[in-house]
Amino acid sequence: MPLDISANPIGQPVDRVDGRLKVTGGAPYAYEHRLERAPAYGVIVPATIAKGRVRAIDATAAEATPGVLLVMTHRNAPKQPAFGPPRASARFARARPYLGDDRVRHWGEPVAFVVAETFEAARAAAALVTVEYEAETPVLGLEQHLNTAYAPETINVGMKTDTSEGDFEAAFAAGPVTVDATYLVAQQHHMALEPHAAIASWEGDEVTVRTSTQNVANTRKSLAATLEIPLEKVRIMSPYVGGGFGGKLGMRAEVVLAAFGARALKRPVKVAQSRQQVFSNVGHRPEAIQKVRLSATRDGKLTGVSHEVWMQSSPIEEFAEQTASSTRALYGAPSILTRHRLVNLDMQGGEPVRAPGEAPGLLALESAVDELAHKLGLDPVEMRILNDTQIDPEKKVPFSSRKLVECLREGAARFGWSDRPKAPRERRDGPTLIGYGVAAAIRPNYLGPCAATVRVAEDRTVRVRTDMTDIGTGTYTILAQVAAEELGAPLQAVTVELGDSRFPVSPGSGGSWGAASSASAVLDAARKVKAEMARTDEARVFEATGSVKGMRETQSYKDYSQYCFGAHFAEVAVDEDTGEIRLRRMLGAFAAGRILNAKTARSQMIGGMIWGVSSALFEEAVVDPRFGHVVNGDLGEYHVAAHADVPNVDAFFVDEHDDKANPLGAKGVGELGICGAGAAVANAVFNATGVRVREFPITLDKVLVG
């Protein structure tokens, strides 16, 4: 039976309104748009050194290849502005020159660009371009260069680099029970299903780029700045995005080079990065060393918490992941210390990856909390509940809502936590050891400035427009639900149009703020339309633009600390002879305000949890210490969790409506699911084996050696 959602579609488990288009191939992704004129195909030639300069390029053979139309290098590339200083306030809107000079700043940086009539011809010709380098010795290896670490001015999203509440060193020295542990988290990559791609075409002095981006407005600004043309001369279109996870927040080489090629050839040019190139030309979650120290009374009350982080950055572009930031708000303790330090290495810089900071930070912090609970002989769930707080320890203001305890208690009950193995190696199933693990989840709740238009036609069909993107999260669907409910219209009467720079500006998809921000703007526009319609019986078109202010302009974000919370529970089986780890089941309990769509939200949580499993057990980009390239830079060697790795993962939401978050009372869910998930798995591995692995991912050799 079809679901009756005519009255109150918000919150219902509505199927994706764009689902049929996607499964039938009717939803065009960046590389699939059909233009009136057939495009040419571009292929990037990557650098094969980590640092130095291009001494000479021989493109003779490439240019002689049948079908080749253009070979572009730094010698014939258009003039572009300099990249600028490593730190920029508008990171994702800055100019990004490519082929601008003869310098090589990291392995894989584009050194040439080949365009041909077919992709095959372009790829074959690209392999014929020979490059001579004047190589310099690169600085590589995080641990080897910790002596060069420095404190950035701020960390990501403008957070404080360091914080100190109370006297941690005194608390730690006096603590009757302490933990002092160092955790290593490997470099990890986004690996969106859809690689980075673009099709550029020019009409006179105006360029249109169909691309895969999370933020249309920033890509437009960045391209305009790079091409040094007015903003109004650039149109960006990104109606469907096959995943992003932070990797598509900024403009990449394929956008700029496609625009260069299309302008030079006066015809459309399409470019897609190969999977191997994505490893080199898109940022990553930086490798990090984390030192966590905890002190507590013998009954489990925390007296001090310290979280210090050293991570890889780049001398070309600074990025400081907010790895220790969650530690500032997760537990109540009289003394909390956090620090972040960067080490510049000659490789592609780090950048936001799903739950930047929270995901790797909680992997360490929640492992340390488990270590402390084990030392104390306490139930890890009860210890977390004991240290709950309703006042933000750093900001000294109440939380707008905080249902961490409810998530822990209800999650434990549904998971069967009371039946857990109380001690390591206590439970077996044949040749395997069985372990249970738990971890808390926390993620800031953000709100970005956003605008949207709602138009009601004479036939009472509804059209919603905003440049917001849908990266697979269900944006088309939730915006249709909000408009339908507010206007009292059937869901089938609502059409949502996204991802076009000609539409009102949104903050894009990122930071888990997309749904709440865009839905709040649509709600405002729908209310304006409804008010206008109520004033007349005239059958005409009604249209209004609605908006919502960003968190920096919203008083409730100053009066309250805004976070989402959750709890993860995991059961693993570890083969005692081989060290092989298998996830048996996993459950997540989350509190994220009002849920706009029960189906897509749950899907987001499960996806995040699976990524957490992947981070804990599989994902590790291995960098060659001589040349700076990722030696396992493809999906044959860089393993992400597959169906066989995650047989039974489930999630549910604790009922919550946060009226201080935004007009809908909703919070972001896109990244919450990954926060703490890996630590629950790691803690379960310890419970199964008695081996505490502090270097992630947890591979079988580390379990066996332990």
Q: Can you count the beta strands? A: 25
Strand order of the largest sheet: 3-5-1-12-9-10-11
Estimate the helix proportion, in percent: 10-25%
Structural class: alpha+beta
Round the mean pLDDT to the nearest integer and report it. Answer: 97
Radius of gyration computed on alpha carbons? 26 Å
**Major β-sheet annotation:** 7 strands, mixed
Low-confidence stretches: 1-5
Count of helical stretches: 16
From the spread of the alpha carbons, the general shape counts as globular
How far apart lie the N and C ends? 54 Å
> What fraction of residues sit in β-strands?
15-25%
Top keywords for this entry?
single chain; 706 residues; alpha+beta; 6-stranded mixed sheet
Word description of this protein:
There is one protein chain. Strands 3-5-1-12-9-10-11 form a seven-stranded mixed β-sheet. The protein has a six-stranded mixed β-sheet with strand order 7-15-14-13-8-25, sandwiched between helices. A five-stranded mixed β-sheet has the order 16-17-22-23-24, with helices on both faces. It is built from 16 helices and 25 strands. The N terminus is likely disordered. It is 24% helix and 24% strand. The longest helix has 21 residues. It is α+β, with helices and mostly antiparallel strands and 706 residues long. It is globular.
